[in-house]
């Protein structure tokens, strides 16, 4: 195998003897072309190699030495990676496109500097363009995604609040069963049912101020009453701004819902309802 030095003073090869003979016939190399056979030998003119003498005699010397065919050039791996990452931006909301854009720019720069020994400029340009397009689409993705995430979070917080109310209402009824069917005193209702509730966590709404111990209030009109004498649809617990042992009536209801337009209310029969703002006036507060 042989290596040659082109007119650009760059080294090309390894190349077979048959390939060199073909290049002689095509005028790509001439008698003065520097050639090295194998590794560790000196560079010599092509005319000094006996195996090429006959081929040189049959050809006129070319004016210039052409670089090896493009088939010997390698395709840039960065260019390929840029295009792949750019396309993957479609499935990753554009996040891989940032890396694809950087690799594409680097690949274009390296291909230009290698003067024909590295291919893939088209791939690099395509990867750069595709990546840039998906990066420009990121704000659109965000605008579409954020409202959906906010809605999902709000729904999760509403479900959490409903579950809290159910556990608190159950704790009130357990307390009542253990105290001659009487509901807890309104002034100390949180303290009274704390044992039955098991954890203070259920006194807190996930959508409310976490600094408050509780975001729920007790209907003061049920203070110490026998649960059997209370209409099942009477308000038992409701959402309020916050505070421990808070009790009262509709005046303590939230002025603005923490769950969109839904207010969570527990009734005397232990059920929990999600009431729209328009229906708050239909709630029963008197036992």
Features:
single chain, 287 residues, alpha+beta, Dna Ligase, domain 1, 3 domains, five-stranded mixed sheet, four-stranded antiparallel sheet, rod-shaped
Portion in strands: 5-15%
Helix content, binned percent: 25-40%
Calculate the terminal CA-CA distance, rounded to whole Å.
103 Å
Largest sheet: 5 strands, mixed
User: How many helix segments?
Assistant: 7
In sequence order, what are the helices and strands, one letter per element? EEHEEHEHHEHHHEEEEE
Q: What's the β-strand tally?
A: 11
- Overall number of domains: 3
Class by alpha and beta content: alpha+beta
**Low-confidence regions:** 61-68
Q: Roughly what is the average pLDDT, rounded to an integer?
A: 86
């Amino acid at each position: 195998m042989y290596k040659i030095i082109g007119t650009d003073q760059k080294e090309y090869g390894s190349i077979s003897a048959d390939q060199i003979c073909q290049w002689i016939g095509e005028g790509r190399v001439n008698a003065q072309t520097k050639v090295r056979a194998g590794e560790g030998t000196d560079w010599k003119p092509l005319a000094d190699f006996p195996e090429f003498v006959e081929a040189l005699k049959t050809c006129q010397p070319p004016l210039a030495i052409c670089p090896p065919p493009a088939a010997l050039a390698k395709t840039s791996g960065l260019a390929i990676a840029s295009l792949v990452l750019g396309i993957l931006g479609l499935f990753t909301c554009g996040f891989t496109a940032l890396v694809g854009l950087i690799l594409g720019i680097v690949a274009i720069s390296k291909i230009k500097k290698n003067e024909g020994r590295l291919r893939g400029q088209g791939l690099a340009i395509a990867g750069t363009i595709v990546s840039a397009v998906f990066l420009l689409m990121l704000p659109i993705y965000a605008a579409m995604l954020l409202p959906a995430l906010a809605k999902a979070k709000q729904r999760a917080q509403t479900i959490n609040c409903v579950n809290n109310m159910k556990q608190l209402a159950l704790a009130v009824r357990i307390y009542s069963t253990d105290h001659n069917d009487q509901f807890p005193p309104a002034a100390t209702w949180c303290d009274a049912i704390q044992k039955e509730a098991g954890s203070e966590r259920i006194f807190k709404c996930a959508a409310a101020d976490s600094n408050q111990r509780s975001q729920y209030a007790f209907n003061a009109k049920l203070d110490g009453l026998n649960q059997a004498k209370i209409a099942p649809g009477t308000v038992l617990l409701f959402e309020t701004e916050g505070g421990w042992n808070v009790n009262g009536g509709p005046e303590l209801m939230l002025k603005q819902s923490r769950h969109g337009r839904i207010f969570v209310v527990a009734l005397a029969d232990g059920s929990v309802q999600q009431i729209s703002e328009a229906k708050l006036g239909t709630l029963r507060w008197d036992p």
